[in-house]
Amino acid sequence: MVNNAVIATSTPTPEPARPRHPLGMGAVELAAALGAPAPAEDVRLTGVTLDSRSVRPGDLWSALPGANAHGAQFAEQARSLGAVLALTDSAGERACLDAGLPVLVVEDPRGATATAAALVLGRPAERLRTIGVTGTNGKTSVTTVLTRVLDELAVPAGVVGTSGTAYRDAAGAAHGIGTVRTTPESPELHGILARMVEDGVQVASMEISSHALVLHRADEVVVDVACFTNLSQDHLDFHGTMEAYYEAKRELFTPAHSVRGIVCVDDEWGRRLAREASVPVTTYSTLPGIEADHRARDIRAEEYGSTFTVDGPAGPRSLHAALPGRHYVANTLAAELLLAAVGRTGPEVARVLGAAGTVPGRMELVASSPVRGVVDFSHTADALEQALVTLRAVPGTRRLLVVMGAGGDRDRSKRSAMGEVVARLADVVIITDDNPRTEDPAEIRRAVRSGIPETTNAQVHEVDGRGAAIELAASLADVSDTILVAGKGAETGQQIGGIVHPFDDRLRLRDALTGRGPAGADDTDGER
């Protein structure tokens, strides 16, 4: 999915995640670098891939052990598509040899794949300025805003993250690369960076997920500056505990992954990271009473945004956040500090930052009157609380109606907490389906509803089908009410079973409010 939010022109046709003219490397030289026995033949390697289906002639193909099977079972396919060498462990060696592929055998083929990709592609991360952002919430907002500001300042820049991968080259042309994960697998990531280098990109901003740090996707990328936004409960289906989740994030703030760090200390995890990081760290905060190098204060809500003052080592300065809420003040301040870290400072940067702060699917205003309609990616209890508190504080708000659910095949332990938060902070709660994936949607809804106490003052509905839930919210809303559709943000599909169905919360909410209007509206002139 291409992130067309960053590129102002029409959506580019997705391009491959690899350079057009790779530098390449000899197999014997790579074997020496990996500490593996040299292959009998010194073939020339021009690419690296983990997926046997995406092999191109001249590729090194990595055959990794999996939870249910070994990737080496696809060795014949990789060989037929042009792979000239396999990288695997001892368990995959025989299948690769039987398929006619020479083999490099290592103990940790996943980690070695990142090293191989960096070497074969000429260490592209070292040939441009790089920014890495991690945290439970805010990664997409910060990286997207960064890229928009740089674009406005005519700096060739790119972004890699949840909303896709896009960049503008030195000639001003827009490019998009199709990616699936927040942080792509290491061959893709190094291939993307190599393509950016080839096209004259100067700054690359990347979302770096905790999964990526654990699974070696970001190995061999040492970003010039890393940023930590926050940490709250999520992904415990993968990490198991909050401590393990934090430790994965902390890994970004080591010399293996970054030169320096910028850390939000609004939560205890950030304060702990500021103490434990093994690279130099600059801190920032938006809460009173917390010591930080840069402190936001005098936050003043506007119609749909905020202005605020920042106290820093050089004295006070004023900034504007284009979206409402303290968390977008934090995101704006993070973006400003990251821009400064790559050499972009001054009044013009502040002006552009204040105008470029909107991000698709992040507190996105899709209708403003007579009912305000907002779509947000919030899919954790903490993010929902921030979104609802923020919208409650927007001038002129009457009631809050929220449409929400929880994703299937993901952290089940957060579902009841999400239900508790929305029932406590919203006036009307409509529990529906997010991306149920392979789970029973009704069971997910029941888990969310289990967190809502019987004594709640909120009006609670459970609706089978996200479209019907949005329609119900529109029918219940009245003048000056706000509808928040939470969970999926700018996603354009809904995963049910093994099928992704077209679905865009923004279009559905806009259509529901435009087509039906608030409760009691006159179809002729839209007035009550």
Automatic annotation (TrEMBL):
Entry binding sites for UDP-N-acetyl-alpha-D-muramoyl-L-alanyl-D-glutamate: 50, 52, 182-183, 209, 217
Regions of compositional bias (Polar residues) in chain numbering: 1-12
GO terms under biological process: cell division; cell wall organization; peptidoglycan biosynthetic process; regulation of cell shape
Post-translational modification: Carboxylation is probably crucial for Mg(2+) binding and, consequently, for the gamma-phosphate positioning of ATP.
Protein name per the record: UDP-N-acetylmuramoyl-L-alanyl-D-glutamate--2,6-diaminopimelate ligase
Cofactor(s), names only, from the UniProt record: Mg(2+)
GO molecular function: ATP binding; magnesium ion binding; UDP-N-acetylmuramoylalanyl-D-glutamate-2,6-diaminopimelate ligase activity
Species for this entry: Brachybacterium alimentarium
Residue numbers binding ATP: 135-141
Keywords for the protein's UniProt record, in alphabetical order: ATP-binding, Cell cycle, Cell division, Cell shape, Cell wall biogenesis/degradation, Cytoplasm, Ligase, Magnesium, Nucleotide-binding, Peptidoglycan synthesis
Domain Mur ligase central: 133-336
Database matches in HAMAP family: MurE
Family: Belongs to the MurCDEF family. MurE subfamily.
A Pfam family assignment: Mur_ligase_C
Family matches, as InterPro entries: Mur-like_cat_sf (IPR036565), Mur_ligase_C (IPR004101), Mur_ligase_C_dom_sf (IPR036615), Mur_ligase_cen (IPR013221), Mur_ligase_N (IPR000713), MurE/MurF_N (IPR035911), UDP-N-AcMur-Glu-dNH2Pim_ligase (IPR005761)
Residues with the N6-carboxylysine modification: 249
